[in-house]
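Hmm, what's this shape?
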Amino acid sequence: MANIATHRQIAVVLEELSQEVEALGATLCGDGDIVMRHMDTLQAIDLIAQKQRSLAALLEADCPQAGIEKIAIDTLRERMRLLR
């Protein structure tokens, strides 16, 4: 039972972090100069948030194997498949 509770807490923190990272990216996107000079970096920030959200969902999934297949990010889904 403690393991499930721990996974849920980790999932909550990952979701919170994804929101914070996304907010940071949105703030940076508000500056046109930053967007023009750092588009790749801003996209990387967005990808970090997406990965965190995917991992949070995986931790909360009733069936981890099915949860892996729902991961939209190909590289992350493939990494998680290796753990089976």
About this structure: Residues 2-29 form the longest helix (28 residues). Residues 2-81 form one domain. The mean pLDDT is 94. Residues 33 and 64 are 42 Å apart (CA to CA).
